[in-house]
Amino acid sequence: MAITDEAIERIKEMIVSGELRPGDRLPKEADLAGRLGLSRNSLREAVRALSLVRVLDVRQGDGTYVTSLQPELLLDAVSFLADFHRDDNLLHLLEVRRILEPAASAMAAQVMSDSAIEELGKVLEELHDDPDIDRLIAADLEFHRRIAAGSGNPVLASLIDNLSAPTVRARIWRGISQEGAAARTHEQHWAIFSAIRSRQPELARAWAAVHVAGVEEWLRQAV
Question: Which pLDDT score, from 0 to 100, does residue 49 have?
């Protein structure tokens, strides 16, 4: 194991064990390096790496702190990396969405509140029957965001939110170039919503899988 990797592991162990908690300030660099048996340089590199993935917060002139470690904060790194994917690699993102979104839809059908389901339906009602592509994509993002939040699992919701945005360009491209894609998307949204509203988790799971797979299959042929 590289020295910097070892330093990262040692700091991670302190956080996982509860020795360092969210919001805690790390000991001074010299003290922490001596305590962990590391060079100050390797410790400094480890702190820099952990700050990039939002585990640590380096405050100039004040010290280094453990962040809140909230899922949405840590998963920003997923979104950052996903933004660099080429169109052919978007297939990998869509494959992950095809795994996660059906699960979120099934969970939402079981635990999403009635009021939240009503608001979900309003997202679709505002589009009417023949939405243009810009309004459809905006509604698509909001629709899936609300379902993910309605799953009751904040980690799952953050993952879906971070994986959804990088595929927007592909969804717009499909909506413009594939005949009937916009209408099919709108129809599938209604099918997912109806399954959630009627509290049928497996039906919601199936329709969500069909919905994401449609974009994935189109992109697979396109690239």
Answer: 79
